[in-house]
Specification:
This protein is α+β, with helices and mostly antiparallel strands and 854 residues long. Helices cover 59% and strands 7% of the residues. The protein contains 27 helices and 13 strands. Strands 1, 2, 9, 10 and 11 form a 5-stranded antiparallel beta sheet that branches. A 4-stranded antiparallel beta sheet has the order 4-7-3-8. A hairpin with a 6-residue loop joins strand 5 and strand 6. It is flat, with a radius of gyration of 42 Å.
């Protein structure tokens, strides 16, 4: 083990060393200090006012002010979006203003914009009314003129245009209206207006029922769209004229018009007055159009001016609000006029934080400096890994399972290689890999442009994992070359085949097979095997055994990482009672199977490994015969069998004294695994209690005041501070709970060793499914269509093959292999050593504000 102790530490293997710090800031420099800390983004503040509601905190009024300014900024952004104004940040006109000046300016802009909106709405409403009035004058004037010109027509000509209902004198209203007397003398009146085209039929039916048919309804399309005052959208409308008689009918018709949202306009009966009124309305419409255009240009100019500074103002308000939200997490001492805060920061960041606090003291002209010092804590620190564009996606994959404990071994270091490689084992096709490579390169080459845009959920996921896609593509190309598949078609890339057909036409390839006549193919699967009798049995055997080797290797890596964790945390009990028994158990069964696979490949033996593994337990002393792969195999199998399992009494009766001693060792080994956590937890419990008592003793002897330790005040007692980082509750050691937990853990590991190894066979299954599905698409779509002489069928087959490849193999199969690779890492690999019950380091940082929604 000395070799492992001498290895250099890995930067990303464990999280950064964290420190619990305390800040004591004068009130005059607190805001500037927190703002500078937000620029650094390396300090996570603790909320020391959890028992207080948001309205009981010190800076609640400042937060409300920032919230009101945020509302105004959202109002401006909504107005710019509705107006369709294109704005660009103007760095040349950017000016430095404080929060009070910005608040005044935003209020002025809001008042001005609201006034312009009100004036514009009034003018637009007047314009719409005049436009409707103009349309009513044009259409209704024709109705009235037509009625006057045909006043002497016969009764039979009028029956087609009115209702057959009669009044008390035996004549209909329209029959009375055509008498030679003027309409006002005969009592016939009319109401003209305009209504939405969708309400026309219902409106007419309602008028007919309300007047009992004593009316004449005439309508015509308006001819152009008119703005609807309710929805604000342009709709098709219909001009109508209702002829009636009597005040009661008039009252009913007006109420119905109001209920249906119809606009009524007075139309004179004389043609001269109609023409004069239409001319006046047209003039007013022209004037309003000029006024509306000028007002719209002025409004758009004002919105463009606001939009050029909107982004800077939004960021400024977000920063100020975040600063005051952070200040509300600190304790405020009225007597000493200072704010006291606690938080976690990486140890390497303490010089930067001290320098930022020093600058804040100078720039705020404070007479008292800011105190920054470390604190003792029994609380588990947050987990912080420094990542870059390449490693961030892999770290997020691990964090999706669970955030690592403080300084726990980080699986992301190994997942950078193992995750895309296991994906490629299932996805191996260098043609499909090239397609993934092109897609990932497009995302990487345009990452700056895409990073500044608002992307959809799918595109954002693809962009975030662009480097994962890159490695997945590269490993897929490698595995595709290993399988010799390019869209399921083999190629002679690395030389000639080592096999040939038995006859010239290769007619017996599927039945008899091939003949080997030269050295093996240099790299990967021999392309001549495609379609031969031995293709599927060989690929099945190859991929299945390769899956077992990869699974045993990765599970051993997980158990080895548990050793490094135990070594780092100076816990020899974990090494002696968990690491060693788990390594012995796993490798006694599946490690031995992996060894047999490697020996069989190297020697070319025809041994049946199924028979070897099964009869290793059924007949451990039986003759191996042709299944013997190496000298001493029988003795090794007996030893491993005794270590693993005694199921039959006949086996026990055949055991010698040495074997009985081995059985005793196995029982002791199982007991060690079973009681490992009992010993560990009891030891941890005692050490934790001792550490806790030492912490309390240090607190009582060094400084009585936790919050103002350096100032030497003593107003708060440690035992009565629920927000203190040192206040930690420890549960008593419970033997029965630990025993049950460790028994379940032991059974889970024994059964999991079998199920996890079998789980890696998904590599074989998905690889075979991907290959066969690709073959089906190639043979049943592309080759089948290419067998016809019609160019239309060939193009159709090519298009269908391209779509099937893109949507099924490149999208669905990619997602399937991705999910299975996630499962193998989260359960089979990380389950051997990774706890994942920590919490992430979330510093107060202004860099994260640009991506956050209000």
């Amino acid at each position: 083990m000395k070799f492992f102790d001498d290895l250099a530490p890995m930067d990303h293997f464990r999280s950064e060393d964290m420190s619990l710090v305390q800040l004591i800031m004068p009130v005059e420099s607190a805001q500037l200090a927190v703002s500078y800390l937000g620029e650094i983004g390396l300090l996570q503040f603790k909320d020391l006012n959890e028992e207080k509601s948001p309205f009981q905190r010190t800076f609640v009024n400042q937060v409300k002010r920032c919230g009101e300014m945020s509302r105004k900024l959202r109002f401006f952004a909504d107005q710019i979006s509705k107006a369709g104004v294109t704005t660009y940040p103007d760095s040349a006109s950017e000016e430095v203003i404080d929060l009070e000046q910005l608040e005044i300016r935003l209020s002025e802009h809001e008042v001005e914009l609201l006034e312009m909106n009100r004036n514009s709405e009034k003018l637009q409403q007047t314009y719409n009314e005049l436009l409707e009035f103009k349309l009513v004058l044009l259409k209704a004037g024709r109705f009235l003129g037509s009625a006057q010109n045909h006043a002497v027509m016969a009764e039979t000509e009028l029956v087609e245009n009115n209702y057959s209902m009669k009044d008390e004198d035996g004549l209909s209203l329209l029959e009375q209206s055509i008498q030679p007397e003027p309409s006002n003398m005969a009592g016939l009146r009319f109401i003209s207006g305009i209504i939405c085209q969708s309400k026309e039929l219902t409106f007419e039916r309602m008028l007919f029922r309300a007047t009992r048919g004593n009316m004449f309804f005439n309508q015509a399309p308006a001819g152009e769209q008119v703005m609807d005052p309710v929805s604000g959208e342009k709709v098709h409308k219909t001009v109508f004229v209702v002829f009636f008689s009597g005040e009661q009918a008039k009252s009913k018709i007006l109420k119905i018009c109001q209920a249906f949202g119809a606009s009524c306009y007075p139309v004179p009966e004389e043609n001269n007055k109609q023409k004069q009124l239409a001319h006046e309305v047209s003039l007013r419409l022209s004037e309003l159009e000029v006024t509306l255009d000028a007002g719209m240009r002025h409004r758009n100019k004002a919105l463009a001016s606001i939009g050029s500074q909107l982004w800077n103002w939004t960021i400024m308000v977000k920063k100020e609000k975040a600063v005051y939200d952070t200040l509300n997490m600190l304790n405020f001492d009225v007597t000493k006029k200072c704010l006291v805060g606690e938080g976690w920061c990486p140890t390497f960041a303490k010089p930067q934080i001290k320098e930022a606090l020093h600058h804040a003291t100078i720039h705020s002209n404070s007479q008292v400096g800011i105190i920054f010092h470390d604190m003792d804590s029994s609380e588990s620190p947050p987990t912080y890994f420094r990542t870059n564009r390449f490693t961030n996606a892999f770290q997020e994959i691990v964090d999706a399972y669970g955030v690592a404990r403080f300084q726990e071994a980080n699986p992301a270091v190994y997942s950078v290689i193992t995750f895309p490689f296991l994906f490629a084992v299932m996805f191996g096709d260098w043609g499909h890999g090239l397609c993934l490579l092109l897609g990932s390169l497009v995302l990487i080459l345009h990452e700056k442009k895409l990073g500044s845009q608002k992307l959809g959920s799918f595109m954002e996921m693809a962009y975030g994992g662009r480097y994962v896609l890159l490695l997945m593509a590269l490993f897929s190309i490698y595995c595709g070359l290993l399988y010799n598949e390019f869209f399921s078609v083999p190629f002679y890339i690395f030389g000639e085949s080592a096999y040939k057909c038995r006859n010239a036409d290769c007619s017996d390839v599927h039945t008899v097979g091939l003949i080997k006549y030269r050295d093996p193919y240099p790299f990967g699967v021999d392309p001549k095997w495609r379609g031969s009798r031995s293709e599927l049995p060989f690929l099945n055997s190859l991929k299945m055994k390769m899956s077992i080797l990869l699974g045993v290797s990765q599970m051993n890596l997980g158990i080895i990482l548990s050793y490094f964790d135990a070594k780092f945390h100076a816990n020899p009990l974990d090494i002696q009672y968990q690491f060693i028994p788990q390594m012995i158990f796993l490798n006694s069964l599946f490690g031995y199977l992996a060894l047999l696979i490697v020996i069989k490949w190297c020697t070319g033996s025809q041994a049946d490994l199924y028979h070897v593994m099964i009869y290793m337990f059924l007949e451990p002393f039986g003759n191996l015969g042709e299944n013997q792969l190496f000298w001493g195999q029988k003795e090794l199998q007996v030893t491993l069998c005794i270590h693993l399992l005694y199921r039959e009494m006949d086996v026990f009766s055949m055991c010698s004294t040495t074997e009985i001693l081995l059985l005793v060792l196995v029982i002791i080994e199982v007991c060690l695994i079973l009681y490992a956590d009992i010993i560990i937890d009891s030891g941890h419990s005692g050490s934790s209690l001792d550490a806790f008592s030492k912490t309390i003793y240090l607190e009582e002897t060094t400084d009585r005041g936790r919050t103002y330790g350096i100032l030497g005040t003593s107003e708060m007692d440690v035992d009565h501070e629920p927000d203190s980082a040192r206040h930690q509750h420890h549960e008593d050691f419970n033997f029965s709970e630990v025993f049950v937990h460790q028994m379940i853990h032991s059974i889970e590991f024994v059964l999991g060793a079998v199920s996890n190894t079998a789980s890696y066979l998904r590599l074989w299954a998905l690889s075979l499914a991907h290959s066969e599905l690709s073959t089906v698409f190639y043979e049943k779509l592309l080759l089948l269509a290419w067998g016809y002489d019609s160019i239309v069928i060939r193009i159709t087959g090519l298009v269908v093959f391209a779509f099937a490849t893109a949507f099924v193999l490149l999208m669905m199969e990619t997602l399937s292999a991705l999910l299975h690779a996630l499962r193998l890492h989260w359960v089979e690999f990380m389950g051997k050593f990774y706890h994942g019950d920590g919490y992430k380091f979330k510093p107060f940082s202004f860099k994260l504000l640009a991506d956050e929604e209000d």
